[in-house]
Amino acid sequence: MNYMKKLSRRSFLGNSTSLSLAGFFGLMPALDRSNQKPKGDFVHHVYFWMKNPDSAEDKAKLIEGLKTLKGIKAIKLARIGVPANTNRDVIERGYGVSWLLFFDNLEEQEVYQKHPVHLKFVENYSHLWEKVIVYDSVDV
Hints:
Layout: H1 9-34, E1 42-50, H2 56-69, E2 77-81, E3 97-103, H3 106-114, H4 116-125, E4 129-138
Antiparallel strand pairs: 1-3, 1-4, 2-3
């Protein structure tokens, strides 16, 4: 006995089209989410002006210290940077190192500020900088 049902070309194409459309529309919410930015992100960007701006050793020490902070669980994303080789009137290039952090919200950023690893970082590395500027913002 043949259990396989013989499909006509028309019914096969009709079923295939229906399944394709169902699959596509099933993916629509995922495609829509991929273009959306998460709401509520808290951005903390720190710029360090070095006491000895020409010292590669001091800059390396500060970067080493910043890397120790990356293990703090409250941090969603962290980036360490140095000035890019760009020159326009609006670009500030006087800082030595930047520290860019993303948190889920202000509360998570406050956890980071009070975290023992962060407090130890300030204690151990603050002698390397003469000025710090912080820009905090929230995602819109």
